[in-house]
Here is the input.
Amino acid sequence: MRFDILTVFPGYLSALDLSLIGKARQAGLLEVGVHDLRDWTTDRHRTVDDTPVGGGAGMVMRADVWGKALDEYLVGEGVKILAIPTPSGPRLTQELCESLAARADRIVIACGRYEGIDARVAEHYRTREDIEVLEFSLGDYVLNGGEVAALTLVEAVGRLIPGVVGNPESLVEESHGQAGLLEYPVYTRPLDWRGHAVPEVLTSGDHGKVARWRRDAALRRTAQRRPDMIRALNAHELDKDDRAILAEYGWLWPRKPEPFSHPVRMLIDDSPDPGEVAALAARTFPDACPPSLPADAIAAHIATELSEEKFAHYAADNDHQLLGVRAEGGPLLGYSLVLLPSASRPPLAELAGAAELSKCYLDASWRGSGLNALLLTAALDRAAHAVGSGRIWLGTNAGNKRAIRAYERRGFELAGRRTYLVGDEPNDDVVMVRDIDVAY
Ligand code: 6GU
Here is the structure.
């Protein structure tokens, strides 16, 4: 592969004589030519720029000078790329660098300065069928010229050419590599430095455990720093452990049907619309009832206890904590209602002073996805912040084994029984309780 870099500051690119790229050039793996754009000027002052047509600040680089210079290097057989660094281009990515390393024969880089290069230069070379024009940006900030971006492109593409990087395994687990994750953190000796220890698992010699730890760390890092990369992951390539880690950061998938092949970011909504909550409550309440319960009793309960007016009252009342959960920008998928001790009427004397988890319901398509744990954690967290340290109780139908098991997994224990009226029908409920505490 050959790079030709055109610039008004050829000295800027002397860094390409050094390190791995310098060695690769000496070894003949890579050719790099650096050329002074002013060599293609004809006037005494070697002028490469002029004032912008239409007015405005700064100077614009002349198309005629650039055209003569570029024509000289965009020649020969094979895949020819004209790369133009500009903050207004699409972002340079690892994927693009891999594609260039695999198929480009010649890359000519036009380094602009001042306000940029006359737009007709890119326009003209785009009309040439034997040339691909690639405008690219390094990121959302402005540099004084394209030279740093040219260095970046040569290094990012050059190191992917076989033989340039000594140990090809170094390329496998990198950030922005195939896994679509940032790289895990790395450590070397000393094992203890200024009181910071290397994570113990890395010294265990257990390769399976080390691999899992590194994968977890990569997932955590990416979830914290680059939500855009999590959103782009293919959900079907993630295992159970991956999913559990991402769930901690609010990224979930519905279990069935599974229409999303990408993780979905769930957000807690601290003030859900009471009408939306009432609609969700009407949809989800029947699933929590035993089959023996008459439909009209369920309908009566929905009409009186789960109305928009009731939820509007809870939303406005300081003794109640109403929460929703939804995918970013999507419909409400779950809601919870906590009654603080002042509003709770516990059915057992020993629960006096406890808060009450009065409701916690999820849309059917999201059950089993981990969304329940997310909502419940948020509800308990807010209850704990209101009461400090204390207890929270709940009642759920004694026949609803799925719910009872789910609450047991979240630390609730059986405390007794109560009778609960749905419409006029008495129902047998279990009462469960757990401690809550502000987690500082
Ligand atoms: Cl490629 N060029 C300039 N001048 N500024 C930039 C850039 C490129 N990428 C980010 N900022």
Summary: The mean pLDDT is 95.
